[in-house]
Design a protein that fits this description.
By secondary structure, the chain is an alpha+beta fold. It folds into two domains: about 90 residues, Sandwich (Immunoglobulin-like), CATH 2.60.40.380; about 325 residues, Alkaline phosphatase D (PhoD) (Purple Acid Phosphatase, chain A, domain 2), CATH 3.60.21. It has ten helices and 21 strands. The strands form four sheets. Strands 3, 4, 5, 7, 8 and 9 form a six-stranded antiparallel β-sheet that branches. A hairpin with a 2-residue loop joins β13 and β14. α4 runs parallel beside α7. The chain is globular, with a radius of gyration of 22 Å.
Amino acid sequence: MSLMFISQNCSRGMQRMVLCLILWSVVATATAAQLQAGPMVGATAMRQVKVWVQATGKGQAQLEYWEMSAAKATPLRMKSSVVALNEEADFVAQFTIGLLEPGRTYRYRVLINGKEQKVPQQLVFKTQALWQWRNDAPDWKMAFGSCVFGNETKYDRPGRPYGGAPEDKRVFASMASQAPDLTVWGGDYLYFREVDEDSELGLRYRWRYDRSIAEQQGLLRTGSHVSIWDDHEFGPNDSNSSYRLKGEVLPFFRRYWANPSCGVPELAGTFTTYRFNDAELFMLDNRYHRDSDKLQVKDKTKLGAAQLRWLKNALLMSVSPVKLIVTGSQVTNEVNRFEGWHNFPEERADILKFLVDHKINGVVFLTGDRHFTELLKTDRVGSYPLYELTCSPLLSGVSSGLDAERANKQVVDGTFVAQRNFCTLDFSGTKAERKITMRSFSNTGEKLWERELKLSELQTPADTKR
């Protein structure tokens, strides 16, 4: 792309963005490629793991890994396939390492053009344990949160930085200090600006910029990570299926997250399921097929008919005792004045009726978006109470005018948080005494509240008839 073309055909903001991308390319070509972001372990299974890496330039990437075992003084070192790093893929490499053994811990190192990339912490990935029919499920910890606004002054709106002060980024170190086995990102991982959302180059720029936030790297290297998306990494604020570049943005999500899958062959999107120990995550795409919240028709949809049918079938097929339905917008909040499932009453009623009619046990909703945190409890006739944990924001601004939300009778006492925070869910205990302990922490790591849900309380009463 010539500078003359840029000058004549691009806005000033777009000129700066394109020039930055060209500069990245020039620097990458002129210098030896090295680690830009990550590495990050994505979806793991009993015999397979995914690992994500981004470099500064062209070359080749490879992983060397070995099992950590006291019985082996000199462990056998193995290498992954070599993955080419190219500009078209933002110098991203995703590795799928298979035929591992269940319940094992492996150390690894990243090689770019044959040179080890040094990072401040030991790099480890773990395969999931084979506990079924043998033992109780392992105890494990999940970190959860949403809404990460990485400030960039020249493209941000004037005034107070929406992503807080530099010290607010300590939230990532605080999350990492909890040593989560799995981190689930609940949407709005980044925010497209006005200069980003109208071009594919803009989308590319924002993904690369935000994934490179230095303070985030330690967390990305801790445990494993999966994510959904919401409006801000899909397109403009409150965007829906009409977004012109939705076909262009979907590959960026696939590129920057090592999720177990994205959609199904017959239906595009980011939705997937992910089984982690005794929980199964049903990770919904509430953007790609979504109608506008403002559309005044009875049959408007958030998921689309095909994804809704997929969700029902996936819930029926699941054998996991805990079923975590992860979606960007709140589901059960009855006082929400903004985006949410309350604006899709027929579809929401259909889902909630399905859960009762088919006796789907162990369901908990995990949601984000609202820029405050709360645990909601909704009592249901003929079934167990439905809980929804909303956790937000990690780094974005905090909502104001929250009196009605605080007074909502669905809020479990003491769980409403109006500050930057993150949550953890600890799964522990024997099968008979299994429990989920939910906690909210400030961005400095101070515990704000703690509540315990017994799995026995998330079961359809035995005398309830279908």
